[in-house]
Amino acid sequence: DVKVTQSSRYLVKRTGEKVFLECVQDMDHENMFWYRQDPGLGLRLIYFSYDVKMKEKGDIPEGYSVSREKKERFSLILESASTNQTSMYLCASFPGTGFYEQYFGPGTRLTVT
Amino acid sequence: AQTVTQSQPEMSVQEAETVTLSCTYDTSESDYYLFWYKQPPSRQMILVIRQEAYKQQNATENRFSVNFQKAAKSFSLKISDSQLGDAAMYFCAYWGATNKLIFGTGTLLAVQP
Q1: Do the beta carbons of residue B80 and residue B63 sit within 8 Å?
Q2: Is A104 in Cβ contact with B45 (below 8 Å)?
Q3: DSSP bridge pairs for B25
């Protein structure tokens, strides 16, 4: 069965902390995505990756970076967390080129105080 | 740039009744895909239904069907015989040449017993 997991369901961090959000998929998918979900704004793409060690900026990359050292793992990094980064973060993956169904993780609710 | 608009932030339906969620989009592309995703309170986003733009026939998945009007750039979701488990946030999404999903802002559906 298809599976995308995220390291934490809930996370509370302080302003200025470095935050790592981890996403792991067990489907050998090439493509992985990080979204941010906020009420009234839907899902907005932060970063995505089409292959190992490859990354592309999405629509709202400011304040974030990513790492993809292995195919199955895609990490989102908040170098210095700020209160406006309090949000729900969703990871997704899908295989190959062209379109296939995107599989989503359960999400991480991050609160920055 | 492509945009997706969901004009109904919240909807309510009685159990066993039918409800239609609206979605409009803007694009200059001729070849694309449209999707409805469901996000239940547990937060795992799942694909409900997809429509290829080149297909004139409306997609159907059990109790879920779409009304795809390509010229009007409209893509509504009809849920028949609504069940309590249908209560969720529903997102309309567009996939085109950018190889990225573009989401609407979502419609929160409540199902009344």
Answers
A1: yes
A2: yes
A3: B4
Q: Which two tokens stand for residue B72?
A: 């009007």
pLDDT class of A98 with cuts at 50, 70, 90: low
The amino acid at residue B23 is C
Q: Residue ranges per domain, chain A?
A: 4-98
Q: Is the pLDDT of residue A100 over 70?
A: no
From B39's Cα to the closest Cα of chain A, the distance in A is 10
Which amino acid does the sequence have at B70? Answer: K
Q: What is the pLDDT of residue B99?
A: 80
Burial of A98 (0-12, 13-18, 19+ CB in 10 A): exposed
Do the Cβ atoms of B19 and B13 come closer than 8 Å? yes
Tokens encoding A92: 């997704």
**Inter-chain contact A106–B43, Cβ cutoff 8 Å?**
yes
Residue of chain B nearest A46, judged by CA positions? B100
Q: How far apart are CA A58 and CA A108, in angstroms?
A: 19
CATH T-level fold of A4-98: Immunoglobulin-like (2.60.40)
Domains along the sequence of chain B with CATH: 3-112 (2.60.40.10)
B89 and B107 in contact (C-beta within 8 Å)? yes
